[in-house]
Design goal:
With about 500 residues, the protein is an alpha+beta fold. The chain folds into 2 domains: about 200 residues, Cathepsin B, Chain A; about 260 residues, no CATH class. Helix content is about 40%, strand content about 20%. It has 16 helices and 17 strands. The strands form 5 sheets. The protein has a 7-stranded antiparallel beta sheet, with helices on both faces. Strand 9 and strand 10 form a beta hairpin. It is globular and about 75 Å long.
């Protein structure tokens, strides 16, 4: 029986598009190169890839740009190599969900931010075609900034709906941009009039009710330790986002709040019962190599930085208010997490990545967990949690590296392990960071002007040490991207 033919590419609608490899496309490229508006092209084309799933356009586009920016993912892709691939970008949305329905503009921005890029987003209802043109010129004339566009294919006479791709160049005379389409199985790279692309972006995503747009990506000027991140994949994230962005300001407008302890009591006792699940400590997870217990200089450096950040958290006035309160000891937020329990969960998640089995942790079977101190010279501050996990029939040994933040007398310790005196960040630590990361206007509803002034002084990021300030600003931007989708799609 003869094979039934399937789809093999599509004819690129021209006009409005001009194929990059056509004689006219080559001429446009040559002229744009001479004008200096193809500087970013060479980095992008060096890492240009085809999306591995029909709905992975956002993930593939981001992987291309992150690799072009030479950002180290800090985790292995395959073998010993660290490399961004679209199958690795799952921290903000489960891959199985992306396969079915794609990913939103805000989630792509959040993924870029979480993976080490400085991100600026612009929706078309918040910008103009003139501003867009200026940003295109700025990005295409530099190797250090790249643009991702979110647009609707229909406006370009192409088949399909919403799509993401990077911009590879600009021709000023013809006012055309080069789209490096990551769906290369469908359409080749092509030039389109900038105004046509603007119209394609100036459409509403029916899933979020928000306009599409463009984002600019560059490397962080300063490196964040990324000690904390938001667990936006959790099924209860929508409820938490609504609480933090809408309900909390309403609660704080109550006249019953007279001092900081009243405020913190409202925040803790009124919060969703699983709020502590949404602020996660990012652990260092590695694969066990030949039974080696050595901690590398690179790993040691990251752990020292995290320990310093954790110490800085515990020096804040906000932490002292929270740790000394009776309601924190009684609140459901402050449930007990042993280091063994956390290590088990983290090692399972690490095994998923190391074994290439990204999915439910139920697919991973934890065999053993053991706490031990590293015997590497001069690393007394490191605890190594070893575990063996089974994914299908493959056994994977993983280790979680834990910085040791010395507990001061009277401060809460939640280690809960008989085999180690080491600490991991507590619920109080996490809640402190989460409150600090909330947008400053969260507190503007307080009616007591003196209380507002005092509290804003306590939580102002300007008053924090540099490392902790970077951490807070990093988390605040992640929160900004994530709350946008939730609140608009659910009309919270």
């Amino acid at each position: 029986m003869a094979a039934v033919a399937g789809l093999y590419r599509r004819a690129l609608p021209s006009p409005p598009a001009i194929e990059f490899a056509s004689p006219e496309g080559k001429k446009i490229f040559s002229e744009a190169l001479c004008d200096g508006n193809m500087e970013g092209f060479f980095k992008l084309v060096s890492y240009y890839q085809t999306q591995s799933e029909p709905a992975y356009c956002g993930l593939a586009t981001l992987a291309v740009v992150l690799n072009a920016l030479a950002i180290d993912p800090g985790r292995k892709w395959k073998g010993p190599w660290r490399w961004f691939d679209d199958s690795m970008l799952d921290c903000c949305e489960p891959l199985e969900k992306v396969k079915v329905s794609g990913i939103s503009f805000s989630k792509v921005a959040c993924l870029a931010h979480c993976n080490g890029a400085e991100v600026d987003t612009f929706r078309t209802n918040e910008s103009t075609v003139g501003n867009f043109r200026n940003y295109v010129i700025s990005c295409t004339s530099s190797e250090n900034c790249h643009m991702i566009v979110s647009y609707h294919r229909g406006s370009l006479k192409q088949t399909g709906g919403g799509h993401f791709s990077p911009i590879g160049g600009y021709h000023a005379g013809k006012d055309m941009v080069l789209i490096l389409d990551v769906a290369r199985f469908k359409y080749p790279p092509h030039w389109v009039p900038l105004t046509f692309l603007w119209d394609a972006m100036n459409t509403i995503d029916k899933d979020t009710g928000l306009y599409r747009g463009f984002m600019l990506l560059s490397r962080f000027q300063t490196a964040s330790s990324i000690l904390y991140t938001l667990s936006c994949r959790n099924d209860g994230w929508d409820t938490t986002a609504k609480y933090l962005s809408k309900q909390l300001p309403q609660l704080l407008s109550s006249e019953e709040i007279h001092n900081i302890q009243d405020m913190l009591s409202v925040i803790v006792t009124s919060a969703p019962t699983n709020l502590s699940d949404f602020i996660n400590w990012v652990a260092e997870v590695r694969k066990q190599e030949n039974g080696s217990k050595l901690v590398t200089e690179e790993e040691r450096g990251r752990l020292v930085t995290k320990e310093e950040v954790l110490n800085q958290v515990r020096e804040t006035e906000l932490y002292k208010h929270l740790s000394g309160s009776s309601y924190m000891r009684n609140a459901i937020l402050d449930r007990h997490h042993s280091l063994d329990t956390i290590a088990s969960e983290v090692c399972c998640q690490g095994a998923q990545l190391l074994c290439g089995k990204v999915g439910s942790c139920n697919e991973i079977s934890l065999k053993t967990t053991q706490l031990r101190s590293s015997d590497c010279d001069n690393v007394e501050s490191v605890t190594v949690v070893s575990a063996k996990v089974t994914a299908e029939d493959a056994v994977c040994g993983t280790e979680m590296l834990v910085p040791s933040c010395p507990r001061k007398s009277g401060s809460p310790c939640e280690c809960g392990s008989d085999t180690s005196n080491r600490e991991h960040p507590s619920v109080v630590d996490g809640l402190t960071v989460l409150i600090l990361a909330l947008p400053p206007d969260t507190w503007s509803c307080l009616k007591d002007a003196k209380l507002l002034e005092n509290f804003c002084g306590i939580i102002s990021s300007n008053n924090l040490p540099d490392l902790l300030q970077q951490e807070i600003l990093h988390l605040r931007k992640q929160l900004y991207f994530l709350v946008a989708d939730v609140c608009c799609s659910s009309a919270c």
